[in-house]
Amino acid sequence: MAEGTVAWKSGGRELVVDRDSFLILNHGEPYSMEIETRTPVATLCVFFQSGFVESVYASLAPGAIDPEPAPARFLGRLHARDSRILPRMQAIADAGNAAGDTGKLWLDEQYLELARDLLLLNRDLGRRVRLMPARRPATREELFRRVRRGQEILHADPSQDWGLAEIARASYLSPYHFHRAFTCAFGKSPHQYRNELRLARARRLLESTRMTVTEICGAVGFESAPSFSTLYRQSFGEQPSATRKLSNSR
């Protein structure tokens, strides 16, 4: 999402995507999107030609000078902001909206790098799936599929005060098993993951609205303004007020 929020539907589930997340679907997966808002919404959807990602995937492994394309299938659907993929997609979106001097060569390189970054992300995710607390590969994959449901719930409304038992129940797991599997799958606990989603949303509100820091603190789900400011500084290296001053100076 370049601006706003959209609810995508795929595989019988609703997946909420905003500026701090992105969605990956494999070829042939049905999908639809629903936009119900009066505020402007802008999306960026990248479609790779058949064989493009497979060719990039083959080149990641050492071997022939020009290796044959290798099958590639992505594991995860919904992903939180990272330091590579969303900034690159934003650059692609900005290049399409502005009369710049990037040119076709630059754009072609961005698509190649984007495919590579997505494949590296997928490889890391596959490594995490293999570390899931289960013996059989099929069980590990099923466990990952279930905790991913909990991830989707957190993305849909991170300001909601979800209890661990509620999310675990929706994922068809016990609270302890869900917490352990979620932490293994995403490298952070559900609480830490939700806090990162809340802080990212807070930063976006600081940059794009005139809401006060206290108002934003409550809007994203934090109850204590001092603890919100502490977590914000730890995450972004500055106080919320500093982000607001910077956005006002642009």
Question: Which key phrases capture this entry?
Answer:
single chain, 250 residues, mainly alpha, 3 domains, 8% strand, two-stranded antiparallel ribbon, Arc Repressor Mutant, subunit A, 3-stranded antiparallel beta sheet
How many β-strand stretches? 5
Query: How would a textbook summarize the main sheet?
Result: 3 strands, antiparallel
Radius of gyration: 20 Å
Going across the biggest sheet, name each strand in turn. Answer: 2-1-4
The tally of structural domains comes to 3
Percent helix, as a range, is: 40-55%
General shape: globular
Low-confidence stretches: none
Strand content is: 5-15%
Q: DSSP helix count? A: 10
End-to-end distance? 22 Å
Average pLDDT metric: 88
- Helix/strand/pairing category: mainly alpha
List the helices and strands and how they pair.
Layout: E1 6-10, E2 13-17, E3 21-23, E4 32-34, H1 52-59, E5 78-80, H2 85-97, H3 103-130, H4 137-156, H5 164-170, H6 175-186, H7 190-208, H8 213-219, H9 225-236, H10 240-248
Antiparallel strand pairs: 1-2, 1-4, 3-5
Written overview of the protein:
The chain is mainly alpha-helical and 250 residues long. The chain has 3 domains: 6-130, no CATH class; 137-187; 192-248, Homeodomain-like (Arc Repressor Mutant, subunit A), CATH 1.10.10. Helices cover 54% and strands 8% of the residues. The chain has 10 helices and 5 strands; from the N terminus they run ββββαβααααααααα. The protein has helices at 52-59, 85-97, 103-130, 137-156, 164-170, 175-186, 190-208, 213-219, 225-236, 240-248, and strands at 6-10, 13-17, 21-23, 32-34, 78-80. The strands form 2 sheets. A 3-stranded antiparallel sheet has the order 2-1-4. It has a two-stranded antiparallel ribbon with strand order 3-5. α7 packs parallel to α10 (240-248). 21% of the residues are buried. The model has no long low-confidence stretch (mean pLDDT 88).
